[in-house]
Write a structure and sequence with these properties.
Layout lengths: L2 H4 L9 H16 L8 H4 L1 E2 L5 E2 L3 H14 L12 H17 L6 E2 L4 E2 L6 H6 L11 H15 L10
Antiparallel strand pairs: 1-2, 3-4
Helix pairs in contact: 2-4, 4-5
Length: 161
């Protein structure tokens, strides 16, 4: 056995790397002021009827993808080369954090509306009319991209910056 293999870390049980990645990202998101939600690895997954069960690998992997987006640095300034794909990932992370990606979400006692939790004033500032939570998801995405390009991710202080 070579020394290269002898020094390789071994897992105590399968999934250790998955669990460590989840815990590290969950903690990092919380430190950055995001709201990563329930820690499903430690607290389990709530099921109907108030029961709690152990998180499945598939659920942990999905949560890791979301947590990675939540902890990804802000996009390059508008107009920079390659900023469109990065802005798309940023908006996806913001939406996941703000509303769980639900375009009909209403929060803050009705003040924040839609996938990106727009106020009526902010919605109107990017050309939106009516209720943001009633607008088609594609329109919400388009107007959020306009807002991100104009003001940066600081417009979403908890989930964007």
């Amino acid at each position: 056995m070579s020394s290269k293999h002898a020094s390789a870390p071994t897992s105590v049980w399968p999934g250790t790397q998955l669990h460590e990645a989840y815990l590290n990202l969950h903690e990092k998101a919380a430190r950055r002021g995001a709201e990563p939600g329930r820690n499903i690895l430690i607290k389990g997954v709530e099921t109907g009827g108030g029961d709690v069960r152990t998180a499945k690998r598939k659920e942990l992997r999905r949560s890791i993808r979301i947590l990675r987006r939540m902890t990804t640095p802000a996009p390059a300034p508008a107009g920079a080369a390659g900023s469109a794909p990065q802005a798309s990932g940023t908006l996806e992370a913001i939406a996941a954090c703000e509303s769980g990606g639900d375009p009909t979400a209403i929060g803050g006692g009705g003040i924040y509306r839609g996938k990106y939790q727009f106020t009526y004033e902010t919605w109107q500032s990017v050309g939106g009319t009516g209720d943001p939570a009633a607008a088609p998801e594609a329109e919400q995405d388009r107007r959020a991209a306009m807002l991100l390009a104009r003001n940066g991710s600081g417009q979403w202080p908890v989930c964007g910056g």
